[in-house]
Specification:
Chain lengths: ~300, ~650
């Protein structure tokens, strides 16, 4: 039992150590989180690194706590830094030092109030927020009484939905779900009952492929909306606007990466995905039911023109 | 109270009066709330201890100034090395010993079969071999091996450390005195609370998963080895001493072998606890089944999640049965001169199987690995079943939901929040005094006072309201079910099997259907908690009723009692102390589950705990954890005290 495997262990296949005789052979550690596009993207980048001769390892971590891990060098990089969701954690880590900004993706992100299409039948004036507010009672649940219920994300995502409801004088109550799964479960249940529902959602996200839907149109975001009461429809309150429709999607790297794996760090700077590409990655897993590793391989085969130039 | 002396009346009566006065004080405090000064309602802000800051200061000092970080990281690197070895053997990660391919699944399944067969015969062999075949056929092989590669490292370390600490505690009563409350606390801290310091000191990844599993699995091992060593009869030691054994020899060759059974029960507990951590530890980087399960749930793939849940249950059942069979096995003795191959027949069969299957795997890739795309799945069918179930009960739950929220839960929560903390404190003290006299009163009020002073009173009251309602509901369903199941041997067996399954089935999977049925609110959270709270209630009711001595029931029959009378007058009173342990466990389970129900969306301590985890705030996490633990410990103290008195009064024990 203990000796046999070693006897059978023939010489390991030589990995293509073409580019990097000089760089560290320690594994580059890529964190994965619990949504599919990020996992596939991590495997895509991991396989690009492997094709260059690096050792790569994946580790699943919490998507907020990961910035602390990058800072300490426990993980080497992070491929999806969402402005809305992780901007705060990322900036805090930047201030403490040990982590650096590795450039933006072409893709933009949007996070806001969202509803699946069948909701429109119940409230035809959508997507305007005034129309939503006018049919608030259709969104009422036992725990919110006469007011409509907006189902927000977990509190630690730090959205300011309650402030927005107050600033715009909306007839809604914010209820916070504890996880993304709880959000989807509510939408799935609403679909079975053909009931209207308005939740917190974001793009790019696999949900778009499962349930077509739209974002609610709030007063347009402007610089200072969240700190300066004077702008926006309500002159006395902050947060009287929607979220920016084109938030950044960044990459982040451990500061020590450039020294340890200089070429890999250079490639990371060039890596750049678009919204359709990210949606495609998510679809391979969520709709076509591939494993993330296989989805990454499939994507790399189909998109060699995109990624090959990054490695040169 | 000395043994043998008749229960004295006078102190009882005295305390009887006193607890009544304290209870009265609680009522007065509650009634007078509208006119009471603020400091009687909630502890004033300046009095609240900044516990989180203190803990964080201590941790920063330990980490940065004492350099404890280097010690923990060095230990973690050692664990990492072991993990690399097992990972390489089981799923082919390219580290030492650099296998070309991992061990083929057929070899592992055959090994599992042989282990089961050797321990208990065909049935166990088929169960354990079959489990691994199921895992392979469903294409979960790699994930299961990732999980096992961590458990194989974590469980033995937990056993070793547990045994050493158990021996130390047995050696020095002073150490035991310190260890005991620490163990109490760690066993009632919610898992998330100690995951945060692990992230700080160890980092994330498989090693962090292994270490959090070790910490979680160790306490029962310490307890069981201590218990076993204490029970060793003095005759054995004396005869050892007469042979001139040194104290090390006595420990190694007399005490530990004599305590074997208790120690092996501890090993069994370690294994079960390790499996219970599979999903939770994946929050800090444990790979494998748990991680996959969370990803699948995130994408709302219920069928596939349930498949993984079944695998986890099967693995738990196999490991549980095998370790129990190992614990009960008596050493086999052969006649002198039996040749080696006869004594080790099974070993030889196994070796032949391994070589055969390994060779087969070289030529036939399916025997080496079944890829995800080649695997079969029952997820579609499971999805259909689940969907049908939800559509079926949805009209009912929709109606219950509105009633429960409006007329029961919201008023109940408001009542809990309305109560002045001093009234709760007095009430708890009164109950403590009634059950265990002054000492109990002081103990439980100290626990509650801590919660008040920690500044999390309102959150804690919401947790308390959800737990009390869930346990009540669980008792209403679980106790009758338990009584029914205890009716005959076969039902009892099935009942206990269902309990085992419900307990090891990953709790996260329950969260989705309850949200679909009840929506994101307290009903859903309580619904998920009730499932867990019911398990110990039913289990201990079954075990308590089955454990009532036959002679007593016969005596009742002979005096002409009918079935109902026997149940109410004889069996239930006799089983009550054991059932009380069930209620106690039920409260503990509920407290753990309420914290996990934060993933549905709650406003209690669990929600704050989730925040603390994502911002890696050690101090806050531990304070919240202690609030939960102290609620559990207070309930535990009262229940155990009551059950012990009752047992003594009934003359059992």
């Amino acid at each position: 039992m203990k000796i046999k495997p070693m006897l059978l262990a023939a010489a390991m296949t030589a990995s293509p150590m073409a580019v990097l005789a000089m760089e560290s052979s320690d594994p580059i550690i890529i964190p994965t989180h619990n949504w599919s596009s990020q996992i596939v993207m991590s495997h895509v980048v991991g396989q690009i690194y492997e094709s260059m001769g690096y050792n790569v390892e994946f580790v699943s971590t919490d998507s907020q706590a990961v910035y602390e891990s990058v800072r300490l060098g426990d993980v080497t990089l992070e491929l999806e830094v969402w402005e809305g969701a992780f901007g705060v954690s990322f900036n805090e880590a930047l201030e403490k030092g040990g982590i650096e900004d590795a450039g933006d993706h072409n893709a933009v992100t949007r996070e806001d109030w969202w509803y699946p299409m069948w909701t429109k039948e119940h409230c035809p004036g959508l997507p305007s927020w005034e129309a939503l507010n006018a049919c608030a009672e259709k969104f009422a649940t036992p725990e919110t009484g006469d007011k409509g219920r907006f189902l927000g994300g977990p509190v630690d995502w730090l959205k300011h939905d309650a402030e927005r409801v107050a600033a715009l004088g909306m007839n809604f109550t914010v209820v916070n779900a504890g996880s993304a799964s709880a959000l989807w479960a509510e939408v799935a249940a609403a679909e079975k009952r053909n009931a209207p529902v308005v939740i917190f959602n974001w793009t790019p996200n696999f949900v778009e492929a499962v349930w077509p839907g739209e974002f609610v149109e709030f007063p347009t975001y402007f610089e200072g909306c969240k700190d300066d009461p004077s702008g926006g429809p309500n002159p006395d309150a902050t947060h009287d606007c929607g979220n920016p429709p084109n938030g950044y999607l960044k990459k982040a790297a451990w500061s020590g990466m450039a020294e340890k794996w200089p070429k890999a760090r250079e490639v990371l700077g060039k890596i750049d995905f678009t919204n359709p590409q990210i949606a495609e990655m998510a679809k391979l897993v969520d709709v076509d039911e591939l494993e993330p590793e296989d989805a990454a391989t499939a994507w790399l085969e189909a998109n060699a023109d995109t990624w090959k130039p990054w490695t040169e | 109270m000395g043994a043998g002396s008749p229960p004295s009346i006078s102190p009882g009566e005295e305390s009887h009066k006193l607890w009544w006065w304290i209870a009265l004080a609680a009522i007065v405090l509650a009634v007078l709330k509208p006119v009471a000064p603020d400091w009687l309602v909630r502890p004033p802000v300046w009095l609240v201890w900044p516990l989180a800051d203190w803990i964080n200061a201590v941790f920063t000092f330990m980490r940065d100034d004492l350099g404890l970080m280097h010690v923990t990281r060095a230990f973690a690197d050692g664990v990492q090395w072991l993990l690399d070895v097992t990972a390489n053997l089981l799923y082919g990660k390219r580290r030492w010993p650099r296998l070309e391919d991992p061990i083929p699944w057929t070899v592992i399944a055959a090994t599992a079969f042989m282990v089961g067969y050797a321990l208990r015969g065909w049935a166990l062999g088929i169960l354990s071999g079959g489990t691994f075949i199921w895992v392979a056929l469903l294409g979960q092989w790699k994930w299961a091996m990732e999980t096992l590669s961590v458990i194989i490292v974590a469980a033995p370390i937990a056993v070793l450390f547990g045994l050493v600490l158990g021996v130390l505690a047995w050696r020095s009563s002073r150490f035991e005195l310190v260890l005991d409350p620490v163990l109490n606390l760690t066993q009632s801290l919610p898992h998330f609370a100690y995951m945060i310091p692990v992230v700080v000191f160890i980092g994330v990844g498989p090693k962090a998963g292994a270490i959090v599993t070790i910490i979680f699995a160790m306490p029962p091992m310490i307890r069981m080895s201590l218990l076993g060593l204490k029970k060793v009869s003095p005759e054995i030691i004396e005869s050892g001493q007469m042979c001139g054994a040194t104290s090390w020899q006595l420990l190694r060759y007399a005490r530990i072998p004599s305590a074997r059974n208790d120690i092996l029960v501890g090993v069994n507990q370690v294994i079960m606890q390790s499996l219970a951590m599979v999903v939770l530890a994946s929050f800090i980087g444990m790979p494998g089944l748990g991680q996959k399960l969370l990803q699948l749930l995130q994408a709302l793939k219920m069928g596939r999640s349930v498949e993984i849940g079944i695998t986890i249950v099967l693995l738990a059942v196999v490991l549980d049965r095998c370790s129990k069979a190992w614990a009960e096995r008596q050493p086999e003795h052969f006649e002198k001169g039996t040749p080696w191959h006869q004594r080790n027949k099974l070993l030889l069969v196994w070796a032949v199987l391994v070589v055969g299957l390994w060779t087969l795997a070289e030529f036939w890739p399916l025997a080496q690995e079944i890829k995800r795309t080649q695997a079969f799945t029952i997820s579609k069918q499971l999805d259909v079943i689940l969907d049908g179930f939800i559509r079926l009960v949805d009209p009912v739950t929709l109606a219950i939901r509105a009633f429960l929220i409006r007329d029961v839960l919201i008023p109940m929560r408001d009542a809990y929040l309305w109560l002045p903390f001093t009234a709760v404190l007095a009430f708890v003290a009164a109950v403590g005094w009634r059950i265990g006299g002054r000492r109990s009163a002081l103990t439980v009020s100290a626990f509650v006072l801590f919660i008040a002073m920690s500044g999390w009173w309102d959150r804690a009251m919401i947790t308390a309201y959800m737990v009390s309602f869930a346990v009540l509901l669980a008792a209403l369903v679980g106790l009758p079910l338990g009584i029914w199941a205890a009716g005959n041997e076969r039902r009892a067996k099935v009942g206990l099997l269902i309990c085992d399954t419900a307990q090891t089935f990953p709790s996260f999977i329950y969260l989705i259907p309850v949200v679909m049925l009840f929506g994101v609110n307290d009903v859903a959270a309580i619904g998920a908690v009730v499932v867990f709270a019911m398990v110990p209630l039913a289990r201990y009711t079954i075990e308590g009723l089955r454990g009532v001595p036959e002679t007593l029931i016969e005596a009742a029959d002979m005096s002409g009692a009918n079935k109902r009378q026997t149940l109410w007058k004889v069996r239930l009173p006799m089983a009550l102390p054991t059932m009380m342990v069930g209620i106690n466990q039920s409260i503990m389970f509920s407290l753990f589950m309420v914290i996990i129900a934060a993933f549905i969306g709650t406003q209690d301590l669990g929600q704050e705990m989730q925040r603390a985890l994502s911002s890696t705030d050690v101090g806050k996490g531990l304070v919240l954890g202690m609030c939960v633990a102290f609620m559990g410990l207070a309930a535990d103290h009262l229940a155990m005290r009551w059950a012990a008195d009752k047992r003594r009064a009934l003359g059992i024990d």
